[in-house]
Amino acid sequence: NLCKREYQRRTGIKRSARLPPGPSAIPLIGNVHQLPTEYQEKTFFEWGRQYGGIVYAQLFRNPAIVINSVKVARDLMERRSANYSDRPIFTLLEELLGWKCMPTQMQYGERYRKHRKWMQDTFLSKPVLLSYQPIQRREIYILLSRLSESPELFETHIRGFVAALLMEIVYGHKILSLEDEYVELAERAGTESVLVGSPGSGILSLLVDFFPVLKHYPLWLPGSGFKVKTNYIKGLVTRFLNDPYNMVKEKMTAGTLTAFILAGVVNPGVFKKAQEEIDRVIGNDRLPDFEDRKSLPYMECVLKELYRWDAAAVLGLPHRSMAEDVYQGYRIPRGSMIIPNIWGMSRDPVQYPDPEEFLPERFVDSSKPEADDYNPRNFVFGFGRRQCPGQLFADGNVYLVMSNIIATMDISRAKDEDGCEIITTPEFTSGLVRHPKKFQCVIKPRSEKAINLIARMNLSV
Ligand code: HEM
Q1: Is 307 near ligand 1, meaning CB less than 6 Å away?
Q2: Which of 71, 264, 366, 425 has its CB 3.0 to 4.6 Å from that of 411, i.e. a possible disulfide?
Q3: CATH number, domain containing residue 415
Q4: 380 lines ligand 1 (CB under 6 A)
Q5: Where does heme bind (predicted)?
């Protein structure tokens, strides 16, 4: 209730500052009716093309800032991180599904900072990361031997690999089989939580984030099926709650690795070129290791392109502004949901011509002054104080799995009954975490020597 002048004196913000441009809203609903139920990142991207790098929208009565530009995302969530590191409250996820105490959802403050420090000590410190390497190697050798024995189950093997690795590192729980009860529980709790927010679960489950009162909707009324479902999932989640990282990161890592196989099928030339580099630098008598990474520049370009092309966390995780702010002359209201359209950033046609193509060559020249800013590894893991604490670990993993698969396996197109090659068009799921839809391919060990090498490495760990 401050007068205009007093408000400006205290906050430095002109009351008259305009909101950023954006699509026109209608009363009560705001812009929600303009959002499709699937692939919302594409609509956000279109808004970016129409209105610029920073777009204002209203999701019911909640202000939202959609960011399609890496620069704007950095300016706000990194350079002004003290104001942009909170998270919006998601009623569905936190209260109805029971994920409230996850660090991903935690409100910014003293308690969060303590958790963050713990997460950084666990996943970002060099000595700790080094101590994980023997486990990573061992699990990768197991993955390679499973791939050579039953390559058609490659997606199951990749998921099993990621689950085993994270379970052992986070809990010290060693997974011996894919039927492990804990893996199954983690998988079900995560998958069902992501699915319940999808359109198939009914409009109530989507609305409840914007009208939290709906969580009290009586179970016997029509449309309340979602509540029965959320109660069931809450049971799963509660049983699994001691795991601080479970829900999305497993899917992101496994999805990224599967996308790499897909990229190999769609673009066999890239796979061949990476294989030639490994043969030349490492040879066929041993497998690539962490220390080899700096000697494999083409592989590094493949990795960057994989992060860009797949952009697993399409909209990142939204942040929330804690106080009103002004940016580029626009007013950003307090409590705005800040949505970084990471997928949109990865499709910037100026930085990445032909953005849907998988072209590692676009990263070969790293001498451009803005190369660092547009290195996808520097934005697919999010921004500022909420940036993914698992990124170094995940990145090391993706590198090692990719280089070991390239060194030992050939990937090619599957054939139909008439012996004709099946041409795969890459398709990705919609949702919080994007991963490739089912596709066919042939994976087989490159040679007898590769099979023996895998067997030898399995015995050595
Ligand atoms: C390729 C794999 C991965 C990708 C692409 C990824 C991406 C992301 C992104 C975009 C965010 C949101 C950052 C933000 O709010 O600005 C995030 C947060 C987070 N990630 Fe990851 N992540 C991956 C793997 C992992 C792994 C392996 C772990 C743990 C072992 C992990 C743990 C977390 C946690 C705890 C947060 C929440 C951080 C916070 O709110 O402070 N992630 N991740």
Answers
A1: no
A2: 264
A3: 1.10.630.10
A4: yes
A5: 388
**pLDDT greater than 70 at residue 196:** no
Give the pLDDT confidence score for residue 221 in this predicted structure: 43
Question: Lowest-pLDDT range, 180-184, 253-257, 332-336?
Answer: 180-184
Q: Cα of 358 to ligand 1 centre, how many Å?
A: 24
Overall average pLDDT of the 197-217 stretch:
48
Nearest CA to ligand 1 atom 21: 388
Amino acid residing at 241: L
Identify whether 39 is part of a domain. Answer: no
Q: 128, 381, 392, 432: which to mutate for ligand 1, most atoms within 8 A of CB? A: 381
Residue 76, domain member (yes or no) = no
| CB of 70 sitting under 6 A from ligand 1 | no
User: Binding site for heme: what residues are annotated?
Assistant: 388
**Six token digits for residue 148:** 């050579």
**Can you give the residue range of the structural domain that contains 202?**
82-460
Q: Render pLDDT for 51-104 as a digit per residue (tens, 0 to 9).
A: 999 999 998 888 999 999 999 999 999 999 999 999 987 766 566 555 566 777
Task: Round to whole Å and give the CA distance between 146 and 175.
Answer: 15
The total domain count for the chain is 1
Higher pLDDT, 370 or 160: 160
Residue 72 Cβ < 6 Å to ligand 1: no
pTM given for the model? 0.85
- How remote is the CA of residue 357 from the centroid of ligand 1, in Å? 26
The continuous run of DSSP H or E covering 319 comes out as: strand 319-320
> Are residues 405 and 299 in contact, defined by beta-carbon separation less than 8 angstroms?
no
3-12, 247-256, 328-337 — most confident range: 328-337
Whether the per-residue pLDDT at 7 is higher than 90: the answer is no
Q: With 0-12 CB in 10 A as exposed, 13-18 as middle and 19+ as buried, what is 17?
A: middle
CA of 391 to the centre of ligand 1 (A): 7
Domain assignment of residue 25, yes or no: no
Cα(395) to ligand 1 centroid in Å equals 11
